[in-house]
């Protein structure tokens, strides 16, 4: 039996433009400081994200992390379950450790498997869920996370500055016990990448996302078109999450994005930074203007629960009053 046709908005072949004038921005972090801050502001308003080059994370470490991921995901599936998580679950947003994504929403499947670790605060680390194969996976992840943390803090400073705030504003707001999650997505090679998507359209409910990809697939929506974040060797794709959109009352966007499958095996290695669960997140007074609705204020945990129980309501924005 033929699978049901995908709705237009989930069909990778639809809404794709090859000749768009829109290009996902690329920012050189070694550029002149004022210029970098200006570019970040423009990108956050126009796209909610950008790529960065010259970001300071050693390319050799990025390569090692990719290699670890590749070797881990090449294991037979029973081995992956053993090496990583206590028990299989199909609830992708809730699992920690290894998991698969064969869960359906709106009748379509996201494809692939994942490795997800809560990595900060330290008390959240469940090392028993970290792979022991390849043997240097854990050490590499540890080293990689330190670099991600450093990069994240630097980006938070630049983003704060680009909002006209004290550079330490967002780092202070997220705090010492901010939540860092490490995620590796693995999308198997696909003979017909237009038949479904790797990950459906969504925005990230966290604060800030840092992603590296080995082959093309990630797209952002702009003026109604899906635009590819091109693969630049050793670059990172950065996107804002819903918490920064809320803080800025919609001035900065938490962008909708999705990933296509590829003829080639595809990996994305990501880290997310979020506020602690109990942190109350609402629009800062300086960003509340008459021209935009006032975003709702609630704790990060409440927000996440709402978004997860009401799928595709990621922007449950509406004013309290
Ligand atoms: C995500 C995400 C994109 C990708 O996991 O939130 O958007 O290409 N992933 O893996
Ligand atoms: Ni995402």
Automatic annotation (TrEMBL):
SUPFAM superfamilies: Clavaminate synthase-like
UniProt keywords, alphabetically: Dioxygenase, Iron, Metal-binding, Oxidoreductase
GO MF entries: dioxygenase activity; metal ion binding
Protein family (similarity comment): Belongs to the iron/ascorbate-dependent oxidoreductase family.
Residue spans crossing the bilayer: none
Residues in the signal sequence: none
Protein name: Leucoanthocyanidin dioxygenase
């Amino acid at each position: 039996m033929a699978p049901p046709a995908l709705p237009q908005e989930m069909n990778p072949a639809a809404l794709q433009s090859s000749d768009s004038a829109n290009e996902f921005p690329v920012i050189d972090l070694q550029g002149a400081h004022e210029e970098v801050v200006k570019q970040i502001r423009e990108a956050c308003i126009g796209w909610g994200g950008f790529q960065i080059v010259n970001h300071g994370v050693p390319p050799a470490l990025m390569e090692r992390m990719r290699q670890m991921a590749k070797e881990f995901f090449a294991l037979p599936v029973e081995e992956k379950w053993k090496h990583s998580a206590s028990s299989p679950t199909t609830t992708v947003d809730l699992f920690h450790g290894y998991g698969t994504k064969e869960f359906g929403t709106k009748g379509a499947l996201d494809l692939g498997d994942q490795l997800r670790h809560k990595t900060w605060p330290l008390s959240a680390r469940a090392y028993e869920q970290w792979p022991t194969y390849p043997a240097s996976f854990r050490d590499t992840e540890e080293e990689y996370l330190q670099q991600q943390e450093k990069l994240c803090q630097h980006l938070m400073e630049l983003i704060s500055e680009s909002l006209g705030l004290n550079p330490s504003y967002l780092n202070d707001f997220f705090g010492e016990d901010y939540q860092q999650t490490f995620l590796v997505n693995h999308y198997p090679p696909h003979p017909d990448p237009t038949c479904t998507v790797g990950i459906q359209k969504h925005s990230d409910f966290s604060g800030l996302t840092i992603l590296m990809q080995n082959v093309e697939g990630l797209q952002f929506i702009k003026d109604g078109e899906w635009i590819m974040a091109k693969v630049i060797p050793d670059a990172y794709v950065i996107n804002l999450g819903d918490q920064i959109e809320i803080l800025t009352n919609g001035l900065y966007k938490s962008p909708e994005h999705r990933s296509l499958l590829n003829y080639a095996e595809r990996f994305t290695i990501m880290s997310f930074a979020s506020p602690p669960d109990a942190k109350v997140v609402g629009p800062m007074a300086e960003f509340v203007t008459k021209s935009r609705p006032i975003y709702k204020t609630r704790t990060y945990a409440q927000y996440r629960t709402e978004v997860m129980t009401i799928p595709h309501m990621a922007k449950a924005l509406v004013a309290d009053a």
